[in-house]
Q: What sequence folds into this?
């Protein structure tokens, strides 16, 4: 029997929301410790991680030391308790950095032969492991993975075909897969792996990171997939459960999967207050207070501190100007009255009714304005590519405090946007 521990998206070093950054950083570390404890207690032979081990933008040297120490604790305890030499395999995620500046290098060492980074190297070669009863290969995150995966099909197939008959073959990926993940809206096609391409790689199981909700082991077109999800809520809207998988593989290759849920350090919830009909502003205020009261009762039952985000949307029937449900003073009072409430965020999208006698028109939201401006450009390859490059640069170089790029980095994108928009204006002018 082969036993494998599987987890992903640990995001060590993440400190969002920054107002409670230390508490969030602690929560991710505690979840990671629990995962390591589970792997030790379950006597695993191997551990695979599906990417986003770190949160590069906000991690510290101490976060890297923490992960190195926890991996060493896993190996040391497994050897002392069960006489097992555990090996650990990790694929690069988008939050681990680009290939040329990947923070996974912080935890590798020639003497730590129990740990290996799987995937492409700077030299465009694939790093993989083949030994004993297992083969592990894969490819890290890429914003244009559809084409990138096609480029590596030959290499991946060659690696898999070279494996021994009795080896259990694992493919590690950190991208969305067509027909496997629930893919977020507006995800460009070039960021999604084509499943027909994936089917050309004959492995026993595909471990998929990047998607934060766990999924059961499922089979699609003769391939088995497992999505362990994250070990902690990365964004406030994620419900969980969060945890790790233990896979048992028998001599015939049959897989039994057991999901073990982790105990959270904080209770996190996203609630919504919505009215499809116009309501007085006080109605929205009362509903929000009700949600806060319900959440505080949940904290008492769970005996945990909490983080709450409430999204409020609808139309206010009694105002002509853009309203605010609570003043800053009122919000401060709510927090002071509820010390277990670590963080409260109220996201308001309330539109006022503009009466006829005012001669006004219904305001347009910023989101709708952006959609209208870029409707015609949204499918152009140059725009899609520029958006992806902008996102990657923000992840790599944005200030941790402001989330913005410095002038020298930003000016490159400003010039490119200006060039594209100017070309569009000139083209439209010629048509007229």
A:
């Amino acid at each position: 029997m082969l036993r494998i521990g599987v987890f992903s998206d640990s995001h060590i070093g993440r400190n969002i929301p920054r107002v409670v950054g230390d508490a969030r950083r602690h929560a991710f570390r505690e979840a990671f410790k629990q995962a390591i404890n589970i792997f030790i207690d379950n006597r695993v032979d191997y551990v695979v991680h599906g990417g986003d081990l770190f949160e590069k933008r906000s991690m510290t040297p101490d976060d890297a030391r923490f992960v190195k120490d926890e991996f060493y604790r896993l190996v040391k305890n497994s050897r002392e308790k069960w006489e097992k030499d555990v090996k650990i395999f990790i694929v690069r995620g988008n939050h681990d950095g680009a290939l040329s500046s990947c923070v996974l290098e912080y935890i590798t060492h020639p003497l730590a032969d129990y740990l290996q980074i799987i995937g492409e190297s700077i030299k465009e070669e694939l790093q993989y492991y083949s030994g004993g009863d297992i083969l592990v290969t894969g490819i890290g995150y890429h914003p244009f993975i559809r084409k990138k995966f096609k480029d590596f099909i030959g290499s991946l197939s060659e690696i898999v075909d070279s494996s021994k008959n009795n080896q259990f073959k694992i493919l590690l990926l950190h991208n969305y897969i067509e027909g496997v993940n629930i893919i977020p809206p507006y995800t460009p096609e070039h960021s999604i792996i084509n499943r027909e391409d994936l089917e050309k790689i004959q492995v026993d199981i595909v471990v998929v990171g990047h998607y934060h909700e766990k999924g059961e082991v499922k089979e699609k077109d003769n391939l088995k997939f497992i999505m362990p999800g994250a070990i902690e809520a990365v964004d406030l809207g994620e419900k969980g459960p969060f945890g790790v998988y233990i896979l048992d593989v028998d001599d015939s290759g049959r897989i039994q999967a057991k999901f073990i849920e982790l105990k959270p350090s904080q209770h996190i919830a996203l609630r919504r207050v919505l009215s499809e009909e116009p309501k007085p502003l006080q109605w929205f205020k009362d509903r929000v207070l009700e949600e806060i009261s319900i959440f505080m009762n949940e904290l008492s039952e769970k005996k945990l501190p909490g983080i709450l985000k409430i999204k409020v949307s609808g139309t206010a029937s009694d105002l002509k100007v853009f309203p605010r449900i609570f003043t800053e003073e009122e919000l401060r009072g709510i927090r002071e009255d509820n010390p277990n409430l670590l963080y409260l965020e109220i996201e308001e999208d309330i539109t006022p009714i503009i009466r006829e006698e005012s001669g006004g028109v219904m305001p347009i939201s910023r989101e709708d304005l952006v959609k209208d401006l870029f409707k015609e450009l949204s499918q152009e390859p140059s725009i899609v590519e520029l958006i992806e490059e902008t996102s990657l640069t923000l992840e790599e170089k944005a200030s941790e405090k402001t989330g913005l790029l410095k002038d020298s980095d930003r000016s490159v994108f400003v010039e490119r946007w200006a060039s594209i928009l100017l070309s569009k204006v000139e083209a439209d002018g010629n048509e007229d």
Notes: DSSP finds nine helices and 18 strands in the chain. The longest helix spans residues 407-431. Residues 355-361 have pLDDT under 50 and may be disordered. The two ends are 72 Å apart (CA to CA).
